[in-house]
Structure formats: C-alpha cells, structure tokens
Amino acid sequence: MSPDARDRLHAVTDRLPPPSSRLRASPDRSNIRVLVIIGVIAAAVAAGYLWLARPRPGPTAPLPTATVAHTRPTAPLNPAASSSVVVHVLGKVKHPGVVTLPSGSRVAEAIKAAGGVRPGTQTGPLNLARKLVDGEQIPVGVTRPTPTPAPGPVPSPPNDPGAPLDLNTATVDQLDDLPGVGPVLAQRIVDFRAQHGRFRSVEQLQDVSGIGARRFADLKPKVRV
C-alpha cells in the first residue's frame, strides 16, 4: 500500500466512531427477539382482558310452560238410579214384593209387574195413571193404617174455682188470680218452673223470689203439684 493510500485510510478510520460505541448504538439480535416476544405476550394479555371484560347477556329464564287442564265430564255415580225406580207392591196382587221399573212408569205398570191384581180386588182408591216415585209403597186392595199422632202435652182441665191450682200447668193469668200474687210474681213462678223443671212439692214454691213465709201460708191451700 502506498503512503498516500495509507494516509487516506487513516483519515477515514479516524472519522468513524469507536467499535464499542457502535456496538452500544445497535442492539444485537437476541435483544430484539426478547423485545418481540414481550410485545406479543403483552398484546395477548391485553386481548384476553378485553375479551373477558366484554358485556355478556344475562341468563335468560325459561318461559313458563302453560299447562292445559283436561277436564273430563263427570259420569253419574249410579246410572241405574236415574233411569229406573224401585217400588214395593203389596196387598192383593199375585206376586207382592219389590219391583224395578223404568223411570216414568205408572202405578198400573207396577201392579202388572207384580203379577196383576187378584180376582175381585178393587183398585178404585188407586190412581193407576200416577207416575211412580222411587222407594214408595203401593198397597193394592188394602187400607193404609192411619198414622197415630204423637202424644202431645195433656191440656190441663179447666180449674174449678174451689180446687187447688196445679203449679206445674198453671199459666201466668191463672197464677195472677191467686190472692197476693200479681202479674210480676206470677211470671216469676213460671220462670222458676222453666229453669228448674216441675215443682216436686208445694213447699218448693218458697224458693221463688218474693214468696215469704206469710205469703206461702196464704197460697199453700190453694195450690198443688
């Protein structure tokens, strides 16, 4: 190399920065790769955060299912009860007893179902055209017994002015007629009888308010039980 060329080379090299400064100014390739990886990870983390933070629709409640009630017509418990009648035919028929006939049947049909009437039997008292009633009794040629009325209270006989008054049947007006007994005391006697039951003795009259010993002495011969 000529001296002139060497001088020019030294001039160029003097103008260049030192090698250490060049190394510091330009990073090596391994550092670049690390920075790229860190950038990719940061971008992935940011994307994941944005994905998780996005608004989501709430859970939709299931719509209630409409239930259709299937109703069935109620059948009568005893169809035969509405389509037939049962009656008791008794008396002067050939086959007395219980017979079953269609609903709407007549008395004449019930007698026929019992074998008909015996010869010489009169059916005049019966209304043969009447419709039957379930459970009834049809007497043919016989008289129904007259029901005996239930015994009621025996009315008290008219009081003899001279006879003692029965304390258990006397009315307020009758007691009012007794000497020394007014309407108020007469009502007390009737109320006492209603609360305590029948008088068991004449002396029990003294338990009624307002009847002392003197008034009881006046009433005793005029009352009885």
From TrEMBL:
* One GO cellular component term: type II protein secretion system complex
What GO biological process term is on the record, naming one? DNA repair
The protein's UniProt keywords, in alphabetical order, are: Membrane, Transmembrane, Transmembrane helix
The family database entries (InterPro entries) matched by this protein are listed as:
Endo/Exo/Phosphatase_dom_1, Hlx-hairpin-Hlx_DNA-bd_motif, RuvA_2-like, Soluble_ligand-bd
Provenance organism: Actinomadura pelletieri DSM 43383
What protein name is recorded for this chain?
Competence protein ComEA
- UniProt feature, compositional bias: Pro residues: 146-161
Q: Which taxonomic lineage does the organism of this UniProt entry have?
A: Bacteria, Bacillati, Actinomycetota, Actinomycetes, Streptosporangiales
What positions does the domain Helix-hairpin-helix DNA-binding motif class occupy? 173-192, 203-222
PANTHER family according to UniProt: ENDONUCLEASE/EXONUCLEASE/PHOSPHATASE FAMILY DOMAIN-CONTAINING PROTEIN 1, ENDONUCLEASE_EXONUCLEASE_PHOSPHATASE FAMILY DOMAIN-CONTAINING PROTEIN 1
